[in-house]
Amino acid sequence: MAQNSSYVTVDGEFDSLEDRSFLTIDDYDLSGQNVLLRIDINSSINPENGDLLDDTRIKRHSATVKELSDKYARVIVLAHQSRPGKLDFVNLEKHGERMSQIINKEIKFIDDIYGKEAIKHINNIKDGEIILLDNVRFDDEEIELSKFMNDNFDLQRKSKMVRKLSPQVSFFINDAFAASHRCQPSLVGFAEDMPALAGRVMQRELDFLGKAISSGPTPRIAVLGGSKAADSVAIAENFLQKV
């Protein structure tokens, strides 16, 4: 796919890959369109009062949210916080408040994911407006259906979340790079039914990975981090097959 114009993230301005295999928000006119934006604003929380201790991820995704709003898209945001059983497994109200401060735009937090209240607000959303639905992991299927079977995403596509929200939107935008290794409805279920685009955080990560794999001198050195050794080994094995 041919390169589009440069794009801006909180880290600066970047050029896309000259030949990329994925769609971005540059490839469609999103003005007046309902777009479902999946982001990763999972943040450190003070268990005593629920206050945010770190807004790094919120700042990172705020650029995508603001750009879509500035393009007059109707932005419906999906995100998660922690997981069941953890002290920081809370709703996203304070996340929305913080992002609203960062982008200087109103973000309506909806205490619902795909029920009547969520659908009502989605139906009433106007061009450029932003609504943040509640923690997707409050939905049991988001955890239970995190399985990859038979080389497809039928389980995730048939989840209640996807069946309820898909008719309400025209585009799915995945900006949750840090969570995209997970096979969960909010991450993989929507892409089967509508155009799936990369947000700016996702685009930047894919561009840098693409450049690391396809260009530059050899031999190359890859530095892998993270607390899960098994994941690092799997990534290393895949990387070795491509360079």
UniProtKB/TrEMBL annotation:
Keywords: ATP-binding, Kinase, Nucleotide-binding, Transferase
GO CC, alphabetical: cytosol
Domain of life: Archaea
SUPFAM superfamilies listed in its UniProt record: Phosphoglycerate kinase
Keyword field contains Amino-acid biosynthesis: no
GO terms under biological process: gluconeogenesis; glycolytic process
Molecular function via GO: ADP binding; ATP binding; phosphoglycerate kinase activity
Pfam families: PGK
The keyword Nucleotide-binding is annotated on this UniProt entry: yes
Annotated catalysed reactions: (2R)-3-phosphoglycerate + ATP = (2R)-3-phospho-glyceroyl phosphate + ADP
EC numbers for this chain: 2.7.2.3
PANTHER family associated with the record: PHOSPHOGLYCERATE KINASE, PHOSPHOGLYCERATE KINASE 1, CHLOROPLASTIC-RELATED
Family (UniProt): Belongs to the phosphoglycerate kinase family.
Name listed for the protein in its UniProt record: Phosphoglycerate kinase
Organism: uncultured archaeon MedDCM-OCT-S05-C724
